[in-house]
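Hey, can you fold this one?
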Amino acid sequence: MIWWLPPLLAGLAVAAVAGPLGSLVIWRRLAFFGDTLAHGALLGITLGLLLEINMTLALVFSCSVLALLLLQLQNSRIPSDTLLGILSHSSLATGLVVISLFDGVRIDLMGYLFGDLLAVSSNDMLWVLVGGALVLALLVWQWRGLLAATVCEELAAIDGYPVKRLRILLMLLLALVVALSMKIVGVLLISALLIIPAAAARPLVSSPQQMAWLASVIGMISVGLGMAASFIWDTPTGPSIVVSAALIFVLTQMLSSVRMKVSVS
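Sure. Predicted structure:
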């Protein structure tokens, strides 16, 4: 197999899934929630080292447990933004401290923090493709319910949608995508891959479905541009992908401003 094919396919798969999921994150204003999950994912690396199990499995497990815990803690008296800020930074710091205690264990910490897409193996690619297909299938299956609950949970409950189960499903899907994205863009950049393509798509569409699919396309273009920049200028791949997405975001904002001026005139 061509050496760059597994990284490219893995990156495209994550971008495709991050589009609709990132759209839901923006509509629900859960950007900081995803950031907290990403920071807490370092504890999954510690779990994988301790138990000597597959790192992807450890990340999926730790992110899922943290997502469920955050759902429960949101019912506390502590404001949500304060709670997420505390958990985000404390879990990241705890993960870094515990990892530093492992003597004789070599781990590419910078790769986990900022991603190393070019180091994705065929095995990693299979994990991402299977996990991404599962997430995408669940999103398509429950899209109407997730969208209804995002607009108004009270009306969605009246219409018969299982609002609590849909909320849990969304958090678990978000946890799975965060775990799968770890090697591609890293802990510190995962939220950017979720948010920026969806935000870039927003001013160019007229329906939620269009925004979800266009966000996937923008994310996939960002992956391609980021990998190309990495090859040409020898830049880190994960940050290059995020910079590409940010440039597309700026471009779509400019296009939106031009359209508004033309429509007004």
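The mean pLDDT is 87. Let me know if you want another pass with a different chain boundary.
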